[in-house]
Write a structure and sequence with these properties.
single chain; mainly alpha; about 5% strand
Length: about 1400
């Protein structure tokens, strides 16, 4: 099948089974653990097994069992995990030769086969690798089980109750089997717990032995079903998890023997003990706990045991997150009993107390006693020691030898007594928690109430201590900072627990509130407590939080879990300490309310003058003063070093928590200070870099959050208006540079109002803002408004400054931008030339403003197809930018990006990709991965990858760009919609027509809403919808769509605009597809004349239509006229684009098709070879354009009778298409059909020569194609059926035709060669066994038998026919029957294996 090139619709892109093994050399003992166990096992045997038996595959394919002593066990083996069934294979079964008749045999076979596939010689299965009649061996094996699973290379989990469909659902989901997987009984059994945790590699297999996934890929489901943390599954030491937590993992699991509830946990706790079946579950569990206690605490622990209690501690029932901190604390406190201490420090309300309580509860079994002391002041600490003394005295009455622990005057004695008891020899397993150490005795803390904690430590260097404090200066242990919760899901869980409301993870309002409270547990708990008592929703609470912060906090209920703390007052304690230490620190914290909470740095504050407060100038006079003030705030947990990863050119900044920031706004600044607000706005505006600043983007990005705070204050009248216009202008410029167009417009409008009010409508400052508003409107696509702004600015500047002033020339330059956007290329060129000449005279040829115009002239030349001139302009601009601004400046990168566009249009795809990659890396570094310029280049890279046939990479780029645009600009912004449109084009090229239609529909709806139904962007997508409908065969709908696009463009752009002509060209292609060849010719002629007039006879758009006319003439049989058109197009492309450009090669390919149709096969081959070599060089051997020519060359070889060469060529095309486009793409299936036709021809030729084996070989090839490409079976079954007919195998032939007709129901596929009647499933079909391709219906067959058929099928006279009963076919071969689908698959496999 020949495929013409270059006449496609113009898309408007916005910029085998193993024999059953037998068992030999068996020395196997087998009694089911679940059924035949000795009732009592000797308690003296505790050692793990020193012998392990492993199965292995022998060289003859059989199994054997080998014993290994402990030191000789192979390092690599597989192991099976499964649920025991009623018919498990035992040793007796194996030795008696009865194993194969048992259901469990298949699992052993499966494990062995899978191990061999994984390159493992040995494998272990519990049913037959342990001698369970030997009590000693059984006991040793159970005590060794965890280690055996742990050391296994692979663990195979066989799930008998999980079935997976042969293919997942069409949308790519796997919900059906995942749901069954999560409900599998394997997760409910006791022994499978260690089989899940111990091995590093665990693979899960379904009932049909198909791989479902592994412990990593299914981690989320496993964690949710079992409650086991992901870290445990990933191999974290089990000692990191408390005894209680590990017991909880097994709580809901069951065992057949009740004692196994305990025995199955030996490995989980790394203990050994004798097995005593019949002792009962409770006794077995008690013995297990004793062994755990011995292992974790030692035998002397009982002398100092104190019952665990947190009765005086306010803690939450449902502690959330902090797993990493809990592990870090446990690691820091683990040791040999010598002193270990941890200091938990962080901002008030961060949950340090709750973290300590959670650690105590989790690890209570690891300590002889846990004692909680409140150290907020000395009195509280002494009372806490008294309570500890009572705890100890209740269980050890003679331990302290105190007469009265309640007397206040004896509290010092009580403290000494407690410290002495904790210092006694062997009393090393205690834990003391000193909570709320917020007023520590430090060198710079002169508060007489400050506490020296070291005086209250036991003297002996033993035991464990946890200290919670807000101060980072407490150095009495390993410092662990408690930070905000990083996962919003943890914040939502706290909100849910506190508010007793469910479903928060899917509640957008709850998510917004959780993000606002920014992972601060106290704030989250406070919000939850309030919401628990009122009926308001999360959105209402968030509104109140922002509008009425103080009132909301004062009315919130107190929290039992946060003693003496509310969100309203919690930081006041720290603030009071700060004021005592450094008044500048306190004032800085107050001033912070007028900036954003994140990244406040020294240089930003160094814009003060003599009119500003003295304290501010003192604060920022040098680095030492500033950092000293910040250090005090940091030591109290109020401030942290900002850890953003962006590159800096100034000093690193500091940040405060968002909730603390709200407190500074609503409490510290309850009386709003307009002077401080205006000062903050002035500082931010003064720090915005100018256009000529080196690497300005680093500061621009850093200022954005502070600019947002300033804009809020300006727009809400929290800053006085006088003198604010210049700052608004600078803020607008900052927003525009960062692609934040809405915010930029707000600020520019505010600046314009201010300038007009202060200076009048004709002042220079007013005109500058008017000009910038014009720039902004172009970016927004508001071209009418942009022109109004530019004209106002131009007239004003010409009047006030003259026509050659740089300000006037800048506006002239901007008008050129506008005309270019409107498609007025001649006017744009004229305007740019005026601006360029003026700037060269006024500023010089290398000035940045001059280079801007040079760059834009390059763009105009590119649009006019003046590619040489365009490259000259771009190169001049690039050299100038690199010299003046450096290689990483955004202006330099803009020209690099433009050079990429130019190279792409010239088909220099390698060079274009290099340019885009350079621009992308530069933009990411300078502006960040989410900036508009970055996303635009990502989009352009997607276009390049699409052109190179790298469709996966192209989709990745488009998706990244789309996500970025949606986040930055919203789902309805035109830049977002442009990328949606481009994704539609990509999906169409990939053959994903449904996805393409969804993208086009979304883009169309968005454009219609944002720009109107008649905007050119809307009409371009309408045009693309027409091309899609044409590809889908919806020709009527396509015509309607094209007509809409055409009428709209004629109205908006005129009948001769090139975009209008593009749609005319597409409509012509549609008429050609509909067979309306006369109408198609008229449309092509109109398009051709229009292009020639607008662009000239040699423009590539003109030549494209010439090429299409050539294809039309070829379809009409006007081969001479077609050749003339092709020759004209070829010569034009060679001249304009070069001999090796892909558009040139498209014409060469089409010439090859024409020569083939003219019978000029030698010329055709030469032409195809030229096209093929060119495509391989330009696009690579796997590009779809290369593969089309490969396919065409295969068709040519087939016509020339070069069948071997044709097969090789088709195979290459098929492999390429399958890799690039997938097995279901139309291009892939077309090549499959061509290859099938070739095999059919080879079958027929071989059959004529009685070459049965040769025919059979090609039939096997056809069957393989059927298996690999189900969508091509309709045609391929016909070829298989005829091939079997030719060799006389009527049974297989009938089966193939039966499957073919069943697939075609209710449509016709086969047709009678006598009367063209469709041979459907409910009528008889007669297939000639001699002719290559001949079918007859019953009526025509009867006529043939009576010599009354006529000349049409006279060649069949005397031939034999195979009669197919259509009704029986329909009855037996319905493809609606799933079992029959499997039958078809097996039939094909049998054919392929003949």
């Amino acid at each position: 099948m020949s495929l013409p090139r270059g006449c496609r619709s113009a898309e408007c892109a916005s910029p085998n089974a193993t024999p059953s093994p037998t068992f030999t050399s068996l020395h196997i003992y087998a009694l089911s653990t679940a059924q035949q166990l000795p009732r009592t096992l000797p308690p003296a045997i505790l050692e793990p097994s020193r012998i392990m038996r492993l199965l292995q595959y022998n060289n003859d394919g059989d199994f054997s069992l080998t014993e290994f002593f402990e030191g000789d066990i192979p390092k690599k083996y597989a192991i099976l995990s499964h649920r025991w069934g009623a018919e498990e294979v035992t040793f007796k079964d194996l030795t008696d030769g009865t194993s194969k008749c048992k259901a469990g045999y298949g699992k052993i076979q499966f494990c062995g086969e899978q191990a061999r596939r994984d390159g493992l010689q040995y494998f272990w299965v519990d049913t037959c690798c342990i001698d369970k009649s030997n009590a000693v061996e059984l006991q040793e094996a159970i005590n060794s089980m965890f280690r055996w699973y742990h050391d296994a290379t692979k663990c195979y989990v066989y799930l008998l109750d999980v079935s997976r469909p042969r293919t997942d659902s069409a949308d790519g989901s796997n919900e059906a089997w995942v749901s069954t997987f999560r409900k599998s009984e394997w997760f409910t059994r006791g022994w499978t717990l260690q089989e899940l945790i111990a091995p590093a590699s665990v693979n899960f297999f379904c009932k049909d032995r198909g791989l479902l996934g592994n412990k990593v890929s299914l981690e989320r489901h496993i964690c949710e079903v079992t409650g086991i943390p992901a870290s445990a599954l990933r191999g974290s030491p089990l000692s990191d998890f408390s005894v209680a937590e590990r017991l909880l993992w097994a709580a809901s699991r069951g065992t057949f023997r009740q004692e196994d509830k305990a025995y199955s946990l030996l490995g989980i706790f790394d203990v050994n003990m004798p097995l005593i079946y019949s002792e009962g579950k409770d006794k077995a569990m008690n013995r297990l706990r004793e062994e755990i206690d011995k292992a974790s605490k030692g035998f002397k622990r009982e002398d100092f045991s104190v019952t665990f209690s947190l009765s005086d501690v306010s803690y939450v029932e449902h502690f959330v997150a902090r797993k990493a901190e809990l592990v870090e604390i446990h690691k820091a406190l683990s040791g040999d009993g010598s002193r270990r201490a941890v200091v938990l420090y962080g901002l008030g309300g961060m949950g340090k107390t709750q973290l300590s309580a959670a650690y105590a509860k989790r690890h209570k079994d690891s300590y002889s006693g846990i004692f909680w002391l409140n150290i907020k002041d000395k009195d509280s600490l002494k009372q806490s020691f008294a309570k500890v003394a009572k705890q100890i005295s209740r269980e050890h009455p003679s331990a302290l030898r105190l007469s009265n622990v309640d007397a206040n005057e004896s509290l010092d004695e009580v403290i000494d007594a407690v410290k002495a008891w904790l210092s006694r020899p062997n009393n090393t397993r205690w834990l003391m928690i000193f909570d709320n150490y917020d007023n520590p005795k430090l060198p710079r803390n002169w508060d007489p109430a400050a506490v020296d904690i070291k005086k209250f430590f036991p003297e002996s260097y033993q035991g464990s201590i946890i200290i919670t404090t807000r101060s980072s200066q407490v150095k009495n242990g390993q410092l662990i900072q408690v930070r905000k919760l990083g996962d919003v899901r943890d914040s939502l869980e706290i909100l849910s627990n506190a508010s007793r409301r469910k479903g928060l993870f899917d509640d957008s309002d709850a998510i917004m509130l959780a993000k606002e409270l920014d992972g601060l547990p106290l704030a989250l708990a406070t919000a939850g407590a309030y919401l628990d008592q009122v009926t308001v929703g999360f959105s209402d609470y968030l509104r109140l939080y922002k509008q009425s912060w103080v009132q909301l906090q004062e009315s919130s209920p107190e929290l039992d879990s946060y003693e003496d703390r509310t969100l309203y007052s919690t930081w006041q304690i720290s603030f009071n300490h700060v004021k005592q230490e450094n008044d500048l620190s306190a004032k800085l914290l107050c001033f912070w309310a007028y900036f954003d909470s994140q990244d406040l740095w020294l240089e930003l504050l160094q814009h003060s003058d003599s009119n500003d407060p003295d304290w501010l100038r003192e604060l920022t006079k040098d680095e030492i003063s500033f950092h000293q003030a910040v250090r005090v705030l940091s030591s109290h947990g109020l401030v942290e070093v900002d850890m953003s990863s962006q590159e800096l050119i100034e000093s690193r900044g500091y940040s405060i928590h968002g909730c603390v920031h709200s407190w500074t706004v609503h409490v510290l600044n309850q009386a709003w200070d307009y002077d401080l607000a205006k000062l903050a706005v002035k500082f931010v505006g003064s720090h915005i870099p100018g256009e000529l600043t080196i690497r300005p983007w680093l500061t621009q990005r850093r200022l954005l959050q502070h600019a947002a705070r300033c804009s809020y204050m300006i727009l809400n009248s929290l800053v006085t208006d006088d003198g604010i216009a210049p700052v608004c202008h600078e803020l607008g410029r900052l927003y525009a540079s960062q692609g934040k167009l809405v915010e930029a417009e707000q600020m520019h409008q505010r600046a314009l109002q201010g300038y007009e009010k202060a200076f009048g409508p004709e002042h220079m400052s007013t005109f500058n803002t008017v000009n910038n508003l014009g720039n902004l409107y172009i970016s927004q696509g508001k071209l009418v408004e942009a022109e109004q702004m530019y004209q106002r600015a131009l007239q004003g500047n010409e009047k006030a400054l003259g026509p050659e002033h740089t300000a006037t020339l800048n506006t002239v330059h901007n008008l050129g931008n506008l005309y270019a956007s409107q498609g007025k290329l001649v006017e744009a060129e004229q305007i740019y030339q005026r601006a360029l000449q003026g700037k060269e005279k006024a500023l010089g040829p290398e000035h940045m403003f001059t280079l801007n115009t040079v760059n834009n002239l390059g763009s105009i030349y590119q649009s006019q197809d003046k590619l040489v001139e365009a490259e000259q302009m771009y190169q001049r601009a690039l050299c100038g930018y690199e010299k003046a601004l450096g290689p990483e400046h955004t202006s330099t990168l803009n020209t690099v990006n433009n050079l990429g566009n130019l190279y792409q249009s010239q088909d220099k795809l390698v060079e274009a990709e290099k340019m885009y990659q350079r621009a992308l890396q530069g933009y990411e570094k300078a502006l960040g991965p989410e900036h508009m310029s970055t996303l635009n280049t990502v989009k352009y890279l997607g276009i390049i990858y699409k052109s190179q046939g790298k469709l996966v990479e192209a989709e990745q780029m488009y998706q990244r760009a789309l996500q970025g645009y949606e986040k930055a600009l919203g789902p309805e912004h035109i830049s977002t919609l442009d990328t949606v449109n481009n994704l539609g084009i990509l999906y169409k090229n990939q053959g994903k027509l449904d996805e393409a239609e969804k993208m086009y529909q979304r883009a169309l709806c968005g454009y219609e809403k944002a720009l109107g139904p008649e905007h050119t962007s809307t009409l371009n997508t309408v045009n693309n919808m027409g091309a899609l409908y044409k590809n889908q065969g919806k020709l009527v709908e396509a015509e309607k769509i094209y007509q809409r696009a055409l009428q709209g463009k004629e109205k908006a752009l005129g009948p001769e605009h090139t975009s209008t002509l593009d749609t005319v060209n597409n409509l012509a292609a549609l008429y050609a597809a509909q067979g309306k060849l006369a109408e198609a010719e008229k449309m092509y002629q109109r398009a051709l004349q229009g292009y020639e007039k607008a662009l000239g006879p040699d423009h590539t758009s003109t030549l494209r239509t010439v090429n299409c006319l050539g294809a039309l003439y070829a379809a009409q049989g006007k081969l001479a006229e077609a050749e003339k058109m092709y020759q004209r197009a070829l010569q034009g492309y060679e001249k304009a684009l070069g001999l090796e450009h892909t558009s040139t090669l498209d014409i060469v390919n089409n010439m090859g098709v024409l020569y083939k149709n003219q019978g000029k096969l030698i010329e055709a081959e030469k032409t195809y070879q030229r096209a093929l070599q060119g495509y391989e060089k330009a696009l690579g051997p796997e590009h779809t354009s290369t593969l089309r020519t490969v396919n065409n060359l295969g068709a040519l070889y087939a016509d020339q009778g070069k069948l071997v060469e044709a097969e090789q060529i088709y195979q290459r095309a098929l492999q390429g298409y399958e890799k690039t486009l997938g097995p279901e793409h139309m291009s892939t299936l077309t090549t499959v059909n061509n290859l099938g036709l070739l095999y059919k021809k080879q079958c027929y030729a071989a059959a004529k020569l009685s070459g049965y084996n040769i025919v059979l070989a090609y039939i096997k090839q056809l069957a393989s194609l059927c298996l690999g490409f189900p969508h091509s079976r309709l045609a391929l079954f016909d070829y298989v059926g005829r091939a079997f007919v030719w060799v006389g195998d009527n049974e297989k032939s009938a089966a193939a035709f039966a499957y073919q007709l069943a697939l075609s129901s209710p449509k016709y596929y086969a047709y009678c060669d006598g009367c063209d009647t469709g041979l459907c499933v409910d009528m008889s079909r007669f297939v000639c066994t001699v002719c290559e391709d001949r079918d007859l219906c019953k009526s025509c067959f009867d006529k043939l038998e009576s010599n009354d058929l006529g000349e049409v099928s006279s060649s069949c006279q005397g031939h034999t026919f195979l009669e197919l009963d259509g009704i029986s076919i329909a009855r037996s071969s319905s493809t609606d029957n799933a079992n029959n689908s499997l039958l078809i698959e097996q039939w094909l496999k049998d054919i392929a294996d003949l």
